[in-house]
Structure formats: C-alpha cells, structure tokens
C-alpha cells in the first residue's frame, strides 16, 4: 500500500509529497520515495524521524499498524495536522485514543478507503434497516495469504453498517467463529467468515438470507490503487476541517 500510495500522490493532481515515513528497522530508509514507487526520483527520502517527515505536511495518510497509527494520531493532534487512517485491526483502547485525538484535529478513519466499498456499506445499512430478523446477515471476506487480521477491517465496517441498520450493537450480535456442534443460528446475529489464500486483493459479500430468497451485495477489489485513490479523496476533503472523527461516508456525502 505504501508504494501504491506514493505513486498516486506523485502522479495525482493537487498533491505534493513532503515526507515518507517508515519504521526504524525498514530496509528502505534513505531510499528516494519516487524510485521506491517505480517512478522518477522525487527528492523525498524515506525516513523514520517523525518530526522530519511531518515538516510542511498539511495532511498525513496512514496505512501502518494499530500501535503506529495511535502514536501518530497523538502527534498530529498536537500539531493540528489532518490525519487519514486506513489502518485496520484496532482494539477498543486504540479506538478510544484515536477518538481523543480527533477532539484536537480532523481525522478520517475507515476500515476501507475504497469509494465502492463505502457505497456498499451505505447499501448494507439501508437493506438491514428494511428487512427484519427473518433475514439472516452473513458477511464473507477473502484476502491474500499474508493478511494478518481477521475479520478484515472492511468486513467489520460492513458488519457495523448492518448493525446500525438493525439498531443493535455489533459486539453483542457478532459471531466470528463457528466450529463443532454449534446449535441453530440465533435470529438477529451477524455472522462473519474469513478466507485467506493466494494474492486476492479483497472480496466481500454481504448476504441477507431470508425465507426462500437471498440478497447478496458484492464488492471485488482488483487493484490496490482504489484504496490509495480513496485515501487521497479523503485527504483533499479533510484539509482545513474542524476537529472531529469523520468517515468515508462524510467524504462521499452519503445519507446514512
């Protein structure tokens, strides 16, 4: 994602790359960010010094790790710099820390930066609100073999949308694992299934299974550039916003 994002920034309209940040053990420290992205030299080198990377920045786009994103949110809040977070796998404590940082700066956070996925989430919310508990909700996701968190951040985003449509708490109704003799499915639960293998960028299916009929909402990501392009749309939108924790639904102006 880092290289994809660099290409999108350097080739896109209206953006200037002022810093590229990596962890201190990265083998890419000192490399030119443009060359690393497969483009001409950009004059910006990859570094691990946060202060240096932030010099001149108005917005930071962050696809890293939960711990790194939380630390970055705190630093950006102190500096009043906008923050776009595409990281997934946060704990409840991490989310509380990000919400606290959003009281001092504008943050756009999403489990998926794809414009299409966020339209899918809005549709999921509306369908869930329209259909009763006799339609069971199941979310199936598949990603490449190297993905480390499950369910995916996108699956959880879709699950949250379904829970909001049903006016329930996702944590109270989510079923993330089924194994052995589980008994009958409980009405109103929101199920998750995670598949891993190969080089799949990302596939998500939201299934509404009712009596004698089934609705399936599907999104298939074919290239990581969709996430970078969505993140840059969020960066353009969040610049100069009042402090707050925003979503891609806000960026897209979706009526949710």
UniProtKB/TrEMBL annotation:
Organism, as annotated: Aquabacter spiritensis
Positions of the Dihydrodipicolinate reductase C-terminal domain: 116-252
Catalyzed reactions: (S)-2,3,4,5-tetrahydrodipicolinate + NADP(+) + H2O = (2S,4S)-4-hydroxy-2,3,4,5-tetrahydrodipicolinate + NADPH + H(+); (S)-2,3,4,5-tetrahydrodipicolinate + NAD(+) + H2O = (2S,4S)-4-hydroxy-2,3,4,5-tetrahydrodipicolinate + NADH + H(+)
UniProt pathway: Amino-acid biosynthesis; L-lysine biosynthesis via DAP pathway; (S)-tetrahydrodipicolinate from L-aspartate: step 4/4
Active site: 143 (proton donor/acceptor), 147 (proton donor)
Phylogenetic classification of the source organism: Bacteria, Pseudomonadati, Pseudomonadota, Alphaproteobacteria, Hyphomicrobiales
Residues that hold (S)-2,3,4,5-tetrahydrodipicolinate according to the record: 144, 153-154
Protein name: 4-hydroxy-tetrahydrodipicolinate reductase
Binding residue positions for NAD(+): 86-88, 110-113
EC number(s) on file: 1.17.1.8
Family: Belongs to the DapB family.
């Amino acid at each position: 994602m880092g290289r994809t994002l660099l290409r999108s920034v350097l080739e896109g309209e209206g953006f200037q790359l002022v810093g590229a940040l990596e962890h201190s053990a990265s083998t890419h420290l000192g490399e030119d960010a443009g060359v690393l992205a497969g483009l001409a030299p950009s004059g910006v080198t990859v570094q691990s010094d946060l202060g240096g990377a932030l010099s001149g920045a108005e917005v930071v786009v962050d696809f890293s790790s939960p711990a790194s994103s939380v630390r970055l949110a705190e630093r950006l809040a102190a500096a009043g710099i906008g923050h776009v977070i595409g990281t997934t796998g946060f704990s409840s404590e991490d989310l509380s820390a990000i919400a606290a940082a959003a009281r001092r700066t504008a943050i756009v956070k999403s489990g998926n930066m794809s414009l299409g996925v966020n339209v899918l989430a809005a549709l999921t919310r509306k369908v869930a609100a329209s259909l009763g508990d006799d339609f069971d909700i199941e979310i199936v996701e598949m990603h490449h073999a190297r993905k480390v968190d499950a369910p995916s951040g996108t699956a959880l985003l879709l699950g949250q949308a379904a829970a909001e449509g049903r006016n329930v708490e996702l944590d109270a109704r989510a079923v993330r694992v089924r194994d052995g003799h589980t008994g009958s499915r409980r009405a109103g639960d929101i199920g998750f299934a995670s598949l891993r293998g190969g080089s799949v960028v990302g596939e998500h299916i939201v299934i509404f299974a009712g009596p004698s009929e089934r609705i399936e909402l599907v999104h298939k990501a074919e290239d990581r550039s969709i996430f970078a392009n969505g993140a840059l749309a969020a960066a353009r939108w969040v610049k100069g916003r009042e402090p707050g924790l925003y979503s891609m639904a806000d960026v897209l102006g979706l009526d949710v």
